């Protein structure tokens, strides 16, 4: 290589072409002709069924079309071969897939960076979280997780920077679910709660299965990621979670869920009416303090610091050595395709120059 030659563009494989993956492709396409585009070469795109690869780079605006035109069968085995070549190699995980998350540590161990919106890698079992950390530390590879909590808000980054600066994290509390924030910001006891759940799902705020949000499972994962990043290595079952999903909804297949969503309506109308009588607001809150973690719906006074925000806002308070009395508060949109894709691609750009 000539002494001042530009490094080769990072070779990127995008897994997942749903709500978030499509927004990644749109953002990449919007970079056409800009210096950002020169840093990244999209060489592989896949969803559950199909994949398309091109060593010379797929045009992001045409990638979905390429998937339908000449589809290869989608296989996670094919990702490494598709990424082979000069430059940094990066997998973007925009799926909600257990089998993709299971491979994060493997890819890191093979020198492939991972940028993920999926929380299943770091937010489920402690052993998987440790495997990912260990694989990242062993090689010269990075794990981009900005989009896993707060859809790219500077939450994990702030926790890491505080600790790098010598602070211990004392406590974390807040709203970590964008879809539940949106639901409780819009619910006024008049429209059925189930109708709002459908609207949040159609807007791309919920998980592919909205029960993952309503059960508190998605928030459990996010709180685990925050806690572990703050040095509190909790197992998943150490988080106390109070679900909003009644047992009759929990047992249904995803196909029969939509028609049964009204089972949510009566219990939530009652919770809302109780809170309203006291002049309070319902908020789905995650708390970590003294090694204890819990997640559930709380009724908070209107002027409570965690009751603020609008839309899909996450609002998270962090107490540390320097923020002992007044916490650091981070607030902003915590769900949605565009912000999540931007968070993922921030990580990809960082990883591309490592
Ligand atoms: N929607 C949001 O606001 C946010 C979502 N996320 C996370 O982003 C991830 C994706 O969410 P959505 O786009 O809403 O889901 P989605 O259901 O719209 O899309 C998931 C995509 O993953 C693909 N997929 C599943 N298994 C695969 C495999 N083995 N190989 C390749 N592709 C596979 C599916 O075919 C689909 O294209 C989830 O993990 C979610 O938690 C994170 C932050 C915010
Ligand atoms: N379903 C999630 C999306 C982002 O992680 C949420 O509602 O926060």
What's the SSE blueprint?
Elements: E1 10-15, H1 19-30, H2 35-38, E2 40-46, E3 50-53, H3 63-69, E4 72-73, H4 78-83, E5 89-93, H5 98-101, H6 104-109, E6 113-116, H7 126-138, E7 143-144, H8 155-164, E8 169-175, H9 178-186, H10 193-202, H11 211-214, H12 217-229, E9 239-241, H13 247-250, H14 257-260, H15 265-277, E10 280-289, E11 292-301, E12 313-320, E13 328-333, H16 337-352
Parallel strand pairs: 1-2, 1-5, 5-6, 6-7, 9-11
Antiparallel strand pairs: 2-3, 3-4, 8-10, 8-12, 10-11, 12-13
Helix pairs in contact: 1-16, 9-10
Bound molecules: 1,4-dihydronicotinamide adenine dinucleotide (NAI) and ligand LTNE7NMQ.
The site of the ligand N[C@@H](CC=O)C(=O)O has 11 residues, from helix 9.
How would you portray this structure in words?
This protein has 354 residues and is of the alpha/beta class. The protein is built from 16 helices and 13 strands. It has helices spanning 19-30, 35-38, 63-69, 78-83, 98-101, 104-109, 126-138, 155-164, 178-186, 193-202, 211-214, 217-229, 247-250, 257-260, 265-277, 337-352, and strands at residues 10-15, 40-46, 50-53, 72-73, 89-93, 113-116, 143-144, 169-175, 239-241, 280-289, 292-301, 313-320, 328-333. The chain has a seven-stranded mixed sheet with strand order 4-3-2-1-5-6-7. A hairpin with a 2-residue loop joins strand 10 (280-289) and strand 11. Helix 1 (19-30) crosses helix 16 (337-352) and helix 9 (178-186) crosses helix 10. It starts with 9 loop residues before the first strand and ends with a helix. The ligand N[C@@H](CC=O)C(=O)O is lined by residues 151, 177-179, 205-207, 213, 218, 334-335. Residues 15-21, 46-48, 74, 76, 94-97, 99-100, 117-119, 147, 151, 178, 204-205, 207-208, 335-337, 340 line the site of 1,4-dihydronicotinamide adenine dinucleotide. Its cofactor is a metal cation.
């Amino acid at each position: 290589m000539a002494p001042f030659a530009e490094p080769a563009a990072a070779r990127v494989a995008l897994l997942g072409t749903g709500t978030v993956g499509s927004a990644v492709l749109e953002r990449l396409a919007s970079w056409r002709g800009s210096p950002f585009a020169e840093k990244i070469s999209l060489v592989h795109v896949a969803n559950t069924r199909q994949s398309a690869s091109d060593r010379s780079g797929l045009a992001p605006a045409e990638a979905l079309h390429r998937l339908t035109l000449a589809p290869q069968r989608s296989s996670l085995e094919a990702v490494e071969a598709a990424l082979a070549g000069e430059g940094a190699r990066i997998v973007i995980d925009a799926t909600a897939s257990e089998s993709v998350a299971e491979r994060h540590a493997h890819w890191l161990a093979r020198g492939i960076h991972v940028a993920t919106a999926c929380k299943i890698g770091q937010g489920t079992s402690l052993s998987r979280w440790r495997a990912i950390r260990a694989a990242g530390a062993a090689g010269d590879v990075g794990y981009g997780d900005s989009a896993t909590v707060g859809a790219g808000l500077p939450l994990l980054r702030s926790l890491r920077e505080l600790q790098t600066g010598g602070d211990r994290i004392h406590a974390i509390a807040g709203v970590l679910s964008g879809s539940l924030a949106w639901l409780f910001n819009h619910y006024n006891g008049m429209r059925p709660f189930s109708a709002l759940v459908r609207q949040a799902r159609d807007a791309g705020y919920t998980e592919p299965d909205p029960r993952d949000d309503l059960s508190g499972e998605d928030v459990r994962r996010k709180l685990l990621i925050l806690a572990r990043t703050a040095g509190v290595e909790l197992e998943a079952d150490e988080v106390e979670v109070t679900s909003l999903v009644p047992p009759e909804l929990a047992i249904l297949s995803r196909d029969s869920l939509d028609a049964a969503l009204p089972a949510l309506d009566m219990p939530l109308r009652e919770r809302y009416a109780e809170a309203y009588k006291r002049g309070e607001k319902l908020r789905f809150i995650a708390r970590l303090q003294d090694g204890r973690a819990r997640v559930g719906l709380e009724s908070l006074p209107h002027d409570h610091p965690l009751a603020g925000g609008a839309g899909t806002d996450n609002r998270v308070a962090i107490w540390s050595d320097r923020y002992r009395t007044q916490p650091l508060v981070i607030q902003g949109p915590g769900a949605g395709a565009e912000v999540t894709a931007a968070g993922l691609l921030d990580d990809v750009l960082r990883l591309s120059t490592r």
